[in-house]
Write a structure and sequence with these properties.
- The chain is 30% helix and 29% strand.
- It is of the alpha/beta class.
- It has three domains: 1-93, no CATH class; 124-298, ATPase, nucleotide binding domain (Nucleotidyltransferase, domain 5); 300-431, Nucleotidyltransferase, domain 5 (2-Layer Sandwich).
- The longest helix has 28 residues, at 371-398.
- It is globular and about 65 Å long.
């Protein structure tokens, strides 16, 4: 495969874009290594120039290593080259794992010269969390500095109507284009991405296996076991497993979580990510990502250090999902057909807003003065009544306590909603803020992040996978 590398030469303030074909390696795009040499004064021009080059390259699906050198000498030749990817070609015939990703060797760049002023954007260890929802795509990138997580990039991009129907991608090109625009706008440093499958798209089972089995032997047993649980041929499925805990019934056995879904469900998400300029690295179940982020965002322990029961109410556009987590037991998920669409529909009707305008007004809390009494009050009461009824029925049928409650999704941050639901359930209830306690990169707008935070729960859980060890 041949890809174009963009090379930017700056001489006497003139930007000249050169194009050179660079040999690729399998399906992996090569690095594009750039050097700018020219009279550039001050740090800001360097930073701005580097950002412009980075966005231009990433929009062409190139992995980026940029080196900018300040020099007093004009009209010097531009030195270009490329480095081979650190992990070589990948086998694209296999679906990304649902389980823990394989650690990759790390790459280090060339040493810096004594007199050079360089701003380097190297391939990051971080993982882009990408949540493909019914009405929008959410992106979050995290890094870790001095033991603390840091938000490097985030964003939300609306999807065209019917691009995703019933949580399935129906218009691959539209979803890929939305991801491409989101990536271009947010410019995450990483290109590896993780996304999630809706829990309704997969069959999950807990099976018990001999604890002494090797990984290879366990995989062989799991493959045979999967044939008993799935209604379609094994060659049409993507499958993975994860060892959970020792069996309570037999200490010589381990509980293994088996997850199976149709391969095309995984491949469509992979395809959308590639169209958007990202490299699929992990596909996991949505409940796993939500649990990871919820534990980070909310109370995690009950009495005597035991894991607390935790219920996450994810209020989507048309469907609200209740995720119940209780210690080491397998998460339970239930869907209810009510959500934020009712609120946006009422805003459209009453104030002649478009969908995009209604979403933006809610996110920024810039609603008309009479909206509180005319729209929000009734919506909150109706939502709390349905949510409380659904949660009581669910927890009664599963014999699980309600425990702590976290609200997530676009409508979760409505003023007063958490207090009303907490009173109705007689349970501690709060709004999910998965980025609480994290530091922010200089380019991240803290106020905008806070407004979006409840909707970023799944994306955050996916991004946090990079730090699972």
């Amino acid at each position: 495969m041949v890809v174009e590398a963009l090379v930017l030469r700056v001489e006497q303030g003139v930007h000249e874009v050169l194009r050179h074909p660079v040999e690729g390696h399998g399906d992996e795009p090569p690095y594009a290594k750039l050097r700018h040499e020219g009279p550039v004064a001050g740090e800001d021009p360097h930073r701005r120039l580097g950002a412009e080059i980075e966005v231009a390259l990433r929009s062409r699906n190139l992995r980026v290593q940029i080196e900018i050198t300040a020099s007093q000498c004009e009209n010097r030749p531009t030195d270009t080259g490329h480095a081979e990817p650190d992990n070589g070609p990948q086998d694209r015939s296999a679906a990304p794992r649902h389980g823990r990703p394989t650690p990759r060797p790390q790459r280090t760049g060339p040493s810096q010269g004594d007199t050079a002023v360089r701003h380097r954007w190297n391939k990051s260890d971080s993982l882009v969390g990408l949540d493909i929802g019914s009405t929008s795509v959410k992106l979050l990138e995290l890094s870790k500095h001095d033991g603390r997580h840091r938000v490097e990039a985030f964003g939300v991009e609306p999807l065209p109507p019917n691009a995703v129907v019933d949580r399935n991608i129906s218009d691959l090109d539209s979803v890929g284009e939305a991801i491409r625009q989101l990536v271009a706008r947010t410019a995450p440093r990483a290109r590896r991405a993780a996304t999630a499958l809706p829990d309704s798209a997969a069959i999950t089972r807990i099976v018990e296996m001999d604890a002494s089995l090797s990984d290879e032997a366990m995989q062989s047993r799991i493959t045979a076991e999967a044939g008993r649980h799935i209604p379609f041929p094994l060659e049409e499925v993507a499958m993975d497993f994860e060892v959970q805990n020792l069996s309570e019934r037999n200490p010589e056995q381990v509980e293994v979580l088996l997850a199976v879904c149709r391969r095309d469900e995984v491949e469509r998400r992979e395809g959308a990510m590639r169209l958007g300029g990202l490299r699929p690295h992990v596909v996991e179940m949505e409940a796993q990502a939500i649990q990871r982020a919820a534990v980070h965002a909310g109370p995690t322990t009950g009495g005597a250090g035991r894991p607390a029961s935790l219920s996450v109410l994810d209020i989507g556009a048309g469907v609200t999902r209740l995720h119940a987590f209780d210690g080491a037991r397998q998460p339970q998920v239930q869907e209810q057909h009510f959500g934020g669409n009712r609120l946006t529909a009422e805003l459209r009707r009453r104030y002649a807003m478009s969908d995009a305008e209604a979403f933006a007004a809610l996110r920024r809390r810039e609603l008309p003065p009479d909206a509180e009494e005319a729209v929000l009050q009734g919506f909150r009461v109706a939502l709390v009544a349905e949510a409380a009824r659904a949660m009581r029925l669910f927890h009664a049928s599963t014999d699980r306590p309600v425990g702590n409650v976290l609200l997530a999704g676009g409508a979760a941050a409505l003023p007063g909603l958490a207090d009303l639901l907490g009173d109705a359930l007689a349970a501690p209830t709060g709004v999910a803020d998965p980025c609480a306690g994290m530091t922010l990169a200089p380019r991240v707008d803290g106020q905008a992040l806070a407004a979006c935070a409840p909707a970023l729960l799944t994306a955050c859980g996916l991004a946090l996978r990079a730090f699972d060890r």
